[in-house]
Amino acid sequence: xxxxxxxxxxxxxxxxxxxxxxxxxxxxxxxxxxxxxxxxxxxxxxxxxxxxxxxxxxxxxxxxxxxxxxxxxxxxxxxxxxxxxxxxxxxxxxxxxxxxxxxxxxxxxxxxxxxxxxxxxxxxxxxxxxxxxxxxxxxxxxxxxxxxxxxxxxxxxxxxxxxxxxxxxxxxxxxxxxxxxxxxxxxxxxxxxxxxxxxxxxxxxxxxxxxxxxxxxxxxxxxxxxxxxxxxxxxxxxxxxxxxxxxxxxxxxxxxxxxxxxxxxxxxxxxxx
Length: 273
Description:
Elements: H1 4-14, E1 19-21, H2 33-53, E2 58-63, H3 69-82, E3 87-91, E4 93-94, E5 97-98, H4 107-113, E6 117-121, H5 136-156, H6 158-161, E7 166-169, H7 175-178, H8 180-183, H9 198-203, E8 206-208, H10 214-224, E9 229-230, H11 241-251, H12 257-271
Protein backbone atom coordinates (compact mmCIF):
# COMPACT_ATOMS: atom_id res chain seq x y z
CA UNK A 1 0.00 0.00 0.00
CA UNK A 2 2.79 2.45 0.80
CA UNK A 3 6.17 0.88 -0.11
CA UNK A 4 6.83 2.08 -3.64
CA UNK A 5 9.89 -0.12 -4.13
CA UNK A 6 7.91 -3.25 -3.25
CA UNK A 7 5.25 -2.00 -5.64
CA UNK A 8 7.79 -1.72 -8.47
CA UNK A 9 9.11 -5.21 -7.71
CA UNK A 10 5.59 -6.63 -8.07
CA UNK A 11 5.16 -4.75 -11.35
CA UNK A 12 8.45 -6.08 -12.70
CA UNK A 13 7.57 -9.64 -11.69
CA UNK A 14 4.27 -9.43 -13.56
CA UNK A 15 5.62 -7.57 -16.58
CA UNK A 16 3.80 -4.28 -15.96
CA UNK A 17 5.83 -1.36 -17.30
CA UNK A 18 3.60 1.57 -16.34
CA UNK A 19 0.83 1.81 -13.76
CA UNK A 20 -1.72 4.55 -13.18
CA UNK A 21 -2.21 5.27 -9.47
CA UNK A 22 -5.36 6.61 -7.85
CA UNK A 23 -6.87 6.85 -4.37
CA UNK A 24 -9.45 4.28 -3.34
CA UNK A 25 -12.06 4.27 -0.57
CA UNK A 26 -12.58 6.43 1.44
CA UNK A 27 -11.26 8.96 -1.08
CA UNK A 28 -10.51 12.47 0.20
CA UNK A 29 -14.17 13.10 0.98
CA UNK A 30 -14.72 14.66 4.41
CA UNK A 31 -17.59 16.69 5.77
CA UNK A 32 -15.27 19.46 6.93
CA UNK A 33 -13.94 21.30 3.88
CA UNK A 34 -10.52 22.01 5.36
CA UNK A 35 -10.05 18.32 6.14
CA UNK A 36 -11.09 17.32 2.62
CA UNK A 37 -8.75 19.86 1.05
CA UNK A 38 -5.83 18.79 3.23
CA UNK A 39 -6.42 15.12 2.38
CA UNK A 40 -6.65 15.80 -1.37
CA UNK A 41 -3.48 17.90 -1.28
CA UNK A 42 -1.57 15.19 0.58
CA UNK A 43 -2.65 12.56 -1.95
CA UNK A 44 -1.94 14.69 -5.01
CA UNK A 45 1.42 15.91 -3.75
CA UNK A 46 2.40 12.32 -2.99
CA UNK A 47 1.32 11.03 -6.39
CA UNK A 48 3.13 13.87 -8.14
CA UNK A 49 6.27 13.07 -6.17
CA UNK A 50 6.12 9.38 -7.17
CA UNK A 51 5.56 10.30 -10.81
CA UNK A 52 8.49 12.74 -10.71
CA UNK A 53 10.82 10.14 -9.16
CA UNK A 54 9.71 7.36 -11.52
CA UNK A 55 8.47 9.15 -14.66
CA UNK A 56 8.63 6.04 -16.85
CA UNK A 57 6.79 3.80 -14.36
CA UNK A 58 3.84 5.76 -12.96
CA UNK A 59 1.05 8.15 -13.81
CA UNK A 60 -1.35 9.60 -11.26
CA UNK A 61 -5.02 10.58 -11.10
CA UNK A 62 -5.95 13.66 -9.10
CA UNK A 63 -8.08 13.35 -6.00
CA UNK A 64 -10.66 16.11 -5.42
CA UNK A 65 -12.05 17.34 -2.06
CA UNK A 66 -15.68 16.62 -2.88
CA UNK A 67 -18.43 17.43 -2.14
CA UNK A 68 -16.85 20.90 -1.81
CA UNK A 69 -17.07 22.07 -5.40
CA UNK A 70 -15.20 25.40 -5.35
CA UNK A 71 -12.34 23.75 -3.48
CA UNK A 72 -12.43 20.85 -5.93
CA UNK A 73 -12.14 23.16 -8.93
CA UNK A 74 -9.18 24.88 -7.33
CA UNK A 75 -7.45 21.60 -6.50
CA UNK A 76 -8.20 20.23 -9.97
CA UNK A 77 -6.33 23.17 -11.52
CA UNK A 78 -3.40 22.74 -9.14
CA UNK A 79 -3.16 18.97 -9.55
CA UNK A 80 -3.30 19.00 -13.34
CA UNK A 81 -1.63 22.24 -14.32
CA UNK A 82 0.91 22.69 -11.53
CA UNK A 83 1.62 19.15 -10.33
CA UNK A 84 1.26 17.58 -13.76
CA UNK A 85 -1.06 14.70 -12.87
CA UNK A 86 -2.63 12.81 -15.72
CA UNK A 87 -6.38 12.62 -15.10
CA UNK A 88 -9.00 12.55 -12.33
CA UNK A 89 -10.14 9.82 -9.94
CA UNK A 90 -13.69 10.12 -8.64
CA UNK A 91 -15.63 8.08 -6.11
CA UNK A 92 -19.04 6.95 -7.30
CA UNK A 93 -20.57 9.10 -4.59
CA UNK A 94 -19.21 11.77 -2.29
CA UNK A 95 -20.34 11.12 1.27
CA UNK A 96 -23.67 9.85 -0.13
CA UNK A 97 -24.01 12.88 -2.43
CA UNK A 98 -24.63 11.66 -5.96
CA UNK A 99 -22.24 12.89 -8.62
CA UNK A 100 -25.18 14.42 -10.52
CA UNK A 101 -25.99 16.56 -7.46
CA UNK A 102 -26.31 20.20 -8.49
CA UNK A 103 -23.59 21.09 -6.00
CA UNK A 104 -21.07 18.82 -7.74
CA UNK A 105 -22.06 19.33 -11.38
CA UNK A 106 -19.73 22.32 -12.07
CA UNK A 107 -16.75 19.99 -11.82
CA UNK A 108 -17.62 18.21 -15.07
CA UNK A 109 -17.53 21.18 -17.50
CA UNK A 110 -14.05 22.03 -16.21
CA UNK A 111 -12.89 18.43 -16.66
CA UNK A 112 -14.37 18.58 -20.15
CA UNK A 113 -12.69 21.92 -20.93
CA UNK A 114 -9.32 20.46 -20.06
CA UNK A 115 -10.13 17.29 -22.06
CA UNK A 116 -9.35 15.05 -19.09
CA UNK A 117 -10.09 11.42 -18.37
CA UNK A 118 -12.05 10.37 -15.27
CA UNK A 119 -11.62 7.00 -13.61
CA UNK A 120 -14.62 6.07 -11.47
CA UNK A 121 -14.17 3.95 -8.35
CA UNK A 122 -16.97 2.66 -6.11
CA UNK A 123 -17.36 4.26 -2.71
CA UNK A 124 -19.45 3.26 0.31
CA UNK A 125 -22.64 2.21 -1.50
CA UNK A 126 -26.12 3.52 -0.78
CA UNK A 127 -28.25 1.01 1.11
CA UNK A 128 -25.19 -0.19 3.00
CA UNK A 129 -27.30 -1.31 5.96
CA UNK A 130 -28.91 -3.95 3.73
CA UNK A 131 -25.55 -5.39 2.67
CA UNK A 132 -23.54 -5.77 5.85
CA UNK A 133 -23.97 -9.55 6.00
CA UNK A 134 -21.67 -11.80 4.00
CA UNK A 135 -19.57 -8.81 2.83
CA UNK A 136 -22.27 -8.05 0.25
CA UNK A 137 -21.36 -4.35 0.37
CA UNK A 138 -18.00 -5.30 -1.19
CA UNK A 139 -19.01 -8.12 -3.52
CA UNK A 140 -22.24 -6.53 -4.76
CA UNK A 141 -22.54 -3.02 -3.35
CA UNK A 142 -19.45 -1.72 -5.09
CA UNK A 143 -20.74 -2.94 -8.46
CA UNK A 144 -24.13 -1.33 -7.81
CA UNK A 145 -22.52 1.93 -6.71
CA UNK A 146 -20.57 2.26 -9.95
CA UNK A 147 -23.60 1.37 -12.07
CA UNK A 148 -25.91 3.80 -10.26
CA UNK A 149 -23.41 6.64 -10.50
CA UNK A 150 -22.78 6.10 -14.21
CA UNK A 151 -26.49 5.85 -14.99
CA UNK A 152 -27.32 8.98 -13.01
CA UNK A 153 -24.68 10.92 -14.95
CA UNK A 154 -25.99 9.54 -18.22
CA UNK A 155 -29.61 10.40 -17.39
CA UNK A 156 -28.59 13.91 -16.30
CA UNK A 157 -26.91 14.45 -19.68
CA UNK A 158 -23.38 14.81 -18.31
CA UNK A 159 -21.84 12.64 -21.03
CA UNK A 160 -23.90 14.38 -23.71
CA UNK A 161 -22.91 17.85 -22.49
CA UNK A 162 -19.22 17.04 -21.99
CA UNK A 163 -18.05 15.13 -25.08
CA UNK A 164 -14.36 15.93 -24.51
CA UNK A 165 -14.37 14.19 -21.11
CA UNK A 166 -13.36 10.52 -21.27
CA UNK A 167 -14.89 8.32 -18.57
CA UNK A 168 -13.67 4.93 -17.34
CA UNK A 169 -16.08 2.62 -15.49
CA UNK A 170 -14.56 -0.14 -13.30
CA UNK A 171 -15.12 -3.92 -13.28
CA UNK A 172 -15.81 -4.15 -17.02
CA UNK A 173 -19.13 -2.40 -16.59
CA UNK A 174 -20.76 -5.51 -15.08
CA UNK A 175 -24.44 -4.56 -14.52
CA UNK A 176 -24.33 -1.81 -17.15
CA UNK A 177 -23.16 -3.97 -20.04
CA UNK A 178 -24.82 -7.24 -19.04
CA UNK A 179 -28.19 -5.50 -18.65
CA UNK A 180 -27.74 -2.71 -21.19
CA UNK A 181 -31.17 -3.08 -22.85
CA UNK A 182 -32.95 -2.85 -19.50
CA UNK A 183 -30.89 -0.20 -17.73
CA UNK A 184 -30.61 2.11 -20.74
CA UNK A 185 -32.43 0.80 -23.80
CA UNK A 186 -33.88 3.54 -25.98
CA UNK A 187 -34.11 6.05 -23.12
CA UNK A 188 -32.53 9.43 -23.68
CA UNK A 189 -30.75 11.84 -21.37
CA UNK A 190 -32.87 14.27 -19.37
CA UNK A 191 -34.50 17.03 -21.47
CA UNK A 192 -33.46 15.39 -24.78
CA UNK A 193 -36.14 14.01 -27.04
CA UNK A 194 -33.93 13.13 -30.00
CA UNK A 195 -30.34 12.23 -30.77
CA UNK A 196 -28.26 9.50 -29.09
CA UNK A 197 -29.79 7.22 -26.49
CA UNK A 198 -28.40 6.30 -23.08
CA UNK A 199 -27.21 3.04 -24.64
CA UNK A 200 -25.21 5.03 -27.18
CA UNK A 201 -23.53 7.06 -24.45
CA UNK A 202 -22.74 3.99 -22.33
CA UNK A 203 -21.20 2.31 -25.37
CA UNK A 204 -19.00 5.39 -25.80
CA UNK A 205 -17.53 5.12 -22.29
CA UNK A 206 -14.47 3.08 -21.34
CA UNK A 207 -14.29 0.07 -19.04
CA UNK A 208 -11.42 -1.42 -17.05
CA UNK A 209 -10.70 -5.13 -17.15
CA UNK A 210 -11.17 -5.97 -13.45
CA UNK A 211 -13.58 -8.84 -14.04
CA UNK A 212 -12.43 -12.44 -13.83
CA UNK A 213 -15.69 -14.01 -15.03
CA UNK A 214 -14.42 -15.11 -18.42
CA UNK A 215 -17.82 -15.64 -20.16
CA UNK A 216 -18.73 -12.02 -19.49
CA UNK A 217 -15.84 -10.87 -21.64
CA UNK A 218 -17.72 -11.93 -24.77
CA UNK A 219 -20.58 -9.67 -23.69
CA UNK A 220 -18.30 -6.71 -22.99
CA UNK A 221 -16.30 -7.01 -26.21
CA UNK A 222 -19.47 -7.53 -28.23
CA UNK A 223 -21.07 -4.45 -26.67
CA UNK A 224 -18.29 -1.83 -26.61
CA UNK A 225 -15.39 -3.38 -28.56
CA UNK A 226 -11.83 -3.93 -27.41
CA UNK A 227 -10.96 -0.29 -28.12
CA UNK A 228 -13.09 0.73 -25.12
CA UNK A 229 -11.52 -1.70 -22.63
CA UNK A 230 -8.38 -0.97 -20.59
CA UNK A 231 -6.25 -3.34 -18.55
CA UNK A 232 -6.80 -2.69 -14.85
CA UNK A 233 -6.27 -4.46 -11.55
CA UNK A 234 -7.42 -4.39 -7.93
CA UNK A 235 -3.76 -4.17 -6.88
CA UNK A 236 -2.62 -3.65 -4.13
CA UNK A 237 -5.84 -5.11 -2.70
CA UNK A 238 -5.66 -8.87 -2.65
CA UNK A 239 -2.71 -10.81 -4.00
CA UNK A 240 0.17 -9.29 -6.01
CA UNK A 241 -0.54 -12.16 -8.41
CA UNK A 242 -3.61 -10.21 -9.58
CA UNK A 243 -1.31 -8.19 -11.84
CA UNK A 244 -0.14 -11.26 -13.75
CA UNK A 245 -3.54 -12.97 -13.63
CA UNK A 246 -5.16 -10.02 -15.37
CA UNK A 247 -2.53 -10.11 -18.09
CA UNK A 248 -2.98 -13.86 -18.63
CA UNK A 249 -6.74 -13.40 -18.90
CA UNK A 250 -6.38 -10.85 -21.67
CA UNK A 251 -3.68 -12.86 -23.44
CA UNK A 252 -6.05 -15.83 -23.54
CA UNK A 253 -8.79 -13.93 -25.39
CA UNK A 254 -9.51 -14.92 -28.99
CA UNK A 255 -8.75 -11.44 -30.31
CA UNK A 256 -5.98 -9.99 -32.44
CA UNK A 257 -2.60 -8.99 -31.06
CA UNK A 258 -3.42 -5.41 -32.04
CA UNK A 259 -6.59 -5.57 -29.95
CA UNK A 260 -4.67 -6.95 -26.96
CA UNK A 261 -2.12 -4.15 -27.31
CA UNK A 262 -4.96 -1.63 -27.33
CA UNK A 263 -6.30 -3.05 -24.07
CA UNK A 264 -2.89 -3.24 -22.42
CA UNK A 265 -1.61 0.22 -23.29
CA UNK A 266 -2.83 1.83 -26.50
CA UNK A 267 -6.10 3.27 -25.23
CA UNK A 268 -4.56 4.37 -21.92
CA UNK A 269 -1.76 6.15 -23.76
CA UNK A 270 -4.36 7.99 -25.79
CA UNK A 271 -6.63 8.93 -22.90
CA UNK A 272 -4.15 10.02 -20.24
CA UNK A 273 -1.96 13.11 -20.31
